[in-house]
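Bug #77: duplicate submission created two jobs. Keeping one. Sequence:
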Amino acid sequence: MHLATPAIVPALLTPFDAAGEVDADALRAHVGWLVERGVDGIMPCGTTGETALLSDDEVIAVVEAVVAGAEGRVPVIAHVGRPGTKPTIALGRRALDAGAAAVSAVVPYYHVLEPAMVLDHYRALMEDLGPERVLAYSIPSHSNNVLDGDGLATLAREGLAGFKDSTMSADDHDAYVRALRATGRDDFLLLVGLGALLVRSLRGGSAGAVLGIANLEPELCTRVRDAVRDGRDEDADTLQAELAATEEAHMAFPDLKRAVSERLRADGIEYGPLMRAPLGGAGRPAAQRA
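Kept job's structure:
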């Protein structure tokens, strides 16, 4: 997979209609809107995309719609992480067959795992799907398990393509940067998951970011990217402060989705504002919808 770096990759929201069904038309339109505004890739079906509330068939339907909306202009990195290794591999195969350039997979959640179990999980994915098409993903706030810097470096030496860091911690991110630097991998795709850390991450040598706020403000995210890339340090710092404040104001997923719906509707794209039940009203009886 080729990803232009430094990269801005939206952690894509999933739109639903009032009945709770995936709205493929809105999805394709949003992806096209994002690509036209300069993003470098798309990651559907992650945490921001309500992955835990999607069936496997729905994940594939989302991937197909995103691939159609991207029209080959940017790569699609489909999140396929499931608690089990075998289901993750099966979904990963289907996502790649549906046109994804690569897959990401969250550190397995629910059951508490030993570090060696986490490594073996990713080794199995790499063996079956191809290491160049697998990215790991750690979000401790939503999982009992983490992939630490030493473990990530081990997998990087074994060929893992990349990693999304959603620890939301500057110290943890710096530890990942140091660990990966020791591997000598200059092609590894380290992607930060918090916009407030974007400038720090890029200056540390990361490949970019996978950001929820990029659903709403792709232009602001790409302006930060460009300022760092072009060495305009003062501009980068000013834009970073603006991005951090905008992200904080929309950190709650329902707030982000409502804001995206409003902005897209202003541009002529109908996009449902509801999270899927039980997180929101999409799919609830009409009397319960807010």
